[in-house]
Specification:
This protein has 230 residues and is an alpha/beta fold. It has one domain: Rossmann fold (3-Layer(aba) Sandwich), CATH 3.40.50.720. It is built from seven helices and nine strands; from the N terminus they run βαββαβαβαββαβαβα. The strands form two sheets. A seven-stranded parallel beta sheet has the order 3-2-1-4-5-6-9, with helices on both faces. It has a two-stranded parallel ribbon with strand order 7-8. α4 links the parallel β5 and β6.
């Protein structure tokens, strides 16, 4: 299985990259982003671009022929206007996804969204409306598979770190409590490891459309065959 990964330098994306590198049935991962991952592995290839809205024809050619795309890019809405958040969340995601749907309609597209999104577009929360609209647009694209991941609390593992200062502070202060809660309710307090394994599980399934809340993500990850990690 060949995987295209956006956002590999972020907290979730770094965890997903780790699981892809560990999976014995993944033969290649291409990480696409504005900065290098800083990792070296025989299965890992990188395409560093200045503008994700317009990577250029050479970069697009390198992104064809993949079985799945894991889209882990994301920004917090804090401090952004609605127009700025729409551009960096909805518009950027669709700029990539629409092009990939034309190049590789047999691809499975997996998008990391968030719990509480508003697909109806009538709620008061700006970020939820934008994320919900993005999910709706992705599910309408002609991919063989389109899976929306809606995790709530995400706990970093294996050295992954959030790029958002306030989140890093939260993890530093509340980390022990959050990990205790994870032991009590693992289906609601997901780790980056679990999210990566769940993405691989739905990519192996390939076809279909689904919106996965935290318990669904956990079930997908734990149902994965343990021997996939070698």
């Amino acid at each position: 299985m060949r995987i295209l990964l956006f956002g590999a330098t972020g907290m979730v994306g770094a965890g997903v990259l780790r699981e892809c590198l560990l999976a014995s049935d993944v033969t290649e991962i291409r990480a696409v982003g504005r900065t290098p991952t800083g990792r070296a592995h025989p299965k890992l290839h990188e395409t560093v671009v200045q503008d994700l809205f317009d990577p250029g024809p050479t970069a697009w050619r390198k992104m064809t022929g993949y079985d799945a795309c894991f889209f882990c890019l994301g920004v917090t809405s804090s401090g952004l206007t609605e127009a700025e958040y729409v551009r960096l969340t909805h518009d950027l995601t669709l700029a990539v996804a629409e092009r990939l749907a034309l190049l590789d309609p047999d691809m499975t597209f997996v998008y990391v969204s968030g719990a509480g999104t508003d697909g109806g577009g009538r709620g008061r929360s700006m970020w939820a409306r934008v994320k919900g609209r993005t999910e709706n647009a992705l599910q309408a694209l002609p991919f063989a598979g389109a899976f929306m991941f809606l995790p709530a609390v995400i706990l970093p593992m294996h050295g992954e770190r959030s790029k958002t200062t306030s989140y890093r502070l939260l993890y530093r202060l509340a980390g022990p409590v959050l990990h205790l809660l994870r032991r009590i309710a693992p289906a609601h307090f997901l780790t980056t490891e679990v999210i990566g394994r769940a993405m691989l599980a739905v990519a192996r399934r390939g076809r279909g459309r689904a919106v996965l809340e935290a318990p669904d993500i956990y079930r997908a990850a734990t149902a994965a065959v343990p021997s996939n990690h070698g």
